[in-house]
Amino acid sequence: MADHLGRYEEAEAAYRRAIELDPKSPYPWGNLARLFERNADRSAEALAAFLTAAELDPANSWRRMQALRFARSLGTGPHLPAALQAVSRLHQLVSDDTETKFTLAGLLALSLDWAKASGLLEELAANELVQPDTRVFRAVVDAGHVSDAIALLKRTGADERWRPLYESLRAVKKGSRKYLRRIAPEIRKVADSIVDEIKPDLPQ
Predict the structure, then answer these.
(1) pLDDT of 160-174, one tens digit each?
(2) How far apart are CA 46 and CA 165, in angstroms?
């Protein structure tokens, strides 16, 4: 209630008291994370709290997704190293989680560690059961690895399975959305929406 009333200091004290009473409970850590998330000056504390909640309840996919969501939001700012460290920890906890792998690959690309990022992406692209997280490829584009990503998709056969993404990357490489006009209409529409995600300023 104190949280909803904007009495943030009181809410923080209550959550910390709950942590003292039950250090192994993820609930007050999650509440504390969401409280800190509302204050841009406490982003590092929010990330740490989201991670702690996920560590205390590693089987809970919702807690993990909350931590991943917040880590992604920090990927283009000064908290990138901390976000990368947090997602690396989540990957250690649940090494087979697809969303965690995609998020980690994106943060690695932004951190200019393409060798590790491409290794994860190649593993994901080679898995015929995995669908692409197109948001990650915004980081790949921003990091200057468009040609590398295109080659990776071709190498793994994902250029066919992930064709809309593949064609959107080729459009980015060409430097214009005009490239998509030569694609089948149903592919073109989806690919164009992916371009909106990975390179929104790409010329028409």
Answers:
(1) 999 999 999 999 999
(2) 33
